[in-house]
Amino acid sequence: MKTSSFKGPASRVKGQGPGFTCSLQLAACSLTLAAIFSGCATAPPLPPHPPKYVYKEEKAPPVSTNSLWTDRASLYEDTKARRLNDIVTINVVENITGSGTADTNTSKDTSLDASVTNFFGAPLSMLNAFGAGKAMTPTVAGSMKDTFKGTGSTNRAGKLVGTITAKVAEVMPNGNLVLEARKDITINNEKQTLVLRGMIRTTDIAIDNTISSSKVADAEVFYIGDGVVQDKQSPGWMVKILDKVWPF
What we know:
Shape: elongated
Helix content: 10-25%
Radius of gyration: 38 Å
Strand order of the largest sheet: 5-1-2-3-4-6
Number of helices: 4
């Protein structure tokens, strides 16, 4: 007669002990390295590419039958952007500087001198310390001095000059224009990207269909590089890992 034995889950796990533990350790190390490498990324994510053309029906405002003014293109109007998918040139001139200083000096000097001359009418000579037969002298004296001095300063400067042509991505109900622009320049495998987004007023557009970046509301300007030169601007991956895990 054959006797069969059934191995339950506990016995299967027991048989897979060393290999199973090694797999868990390898998975944990992989997750840890992935988290560290994801934290090492310093370049901000760029917005998506603007569409080539925005297909959106524009509702023209109601115009009386005998009105001379309409929102349609005319041979007698200027070339300034005012409608969806129109383009306008933006002169990017951003010069931002900032600095700050802080100086703190604090000092505190405290002293205390106190004594007990009467303890509920009892003679002080009767207050023996721990029964040693010595008269206790109930006096307290102390002093404390604390001094702190801190100094700090910070300086930051940034300058960006360029020209980019943007497309009208949306026309707001009040007539303001939402612009989106992107320019990619690649020279010797070094790619430079300039992205600008924001909102402008049609009255701020010059007669030559240009506008300064200082007149762009809610402006978002990205200017980043990608290539050999950009890679040399950051430390190596091992240094980044040590900076993340080094506790000191």
